[in-house]
Structure prediction request, 73 residues.
Amino acid sequence: MALARCKECGSPEGLKHKYPYLHSGMTNYRILCGAPTCIASASVWLTDEEEQQYSHGQRDFKISNHTKHVTVH
Ligand SMILES: [Zn+2]
Prediction:
């Protein structure tokens, strides 16, 4: 499951999953950073597995703590 964080907060460290892949292009709507005290517009970070799906043409990902999917480019 992808994660929403702004570029300032960056890829979250110390979680079970690593999110090394930043995707900043989103079309369908704006999402906000998932960091507790941050209300900046977020980018989408993908796991290794999701990045592989992305490289195979997958563009819709579910975001942790959000009910909708986002489209990345
Ligand atoms: Zn943030």
User: Anything to note?
Assistant: The helical segments are 48-55. The chain has one helix and five strands. The chain has one domain: 1-73. Residues 1-73 form one domain.
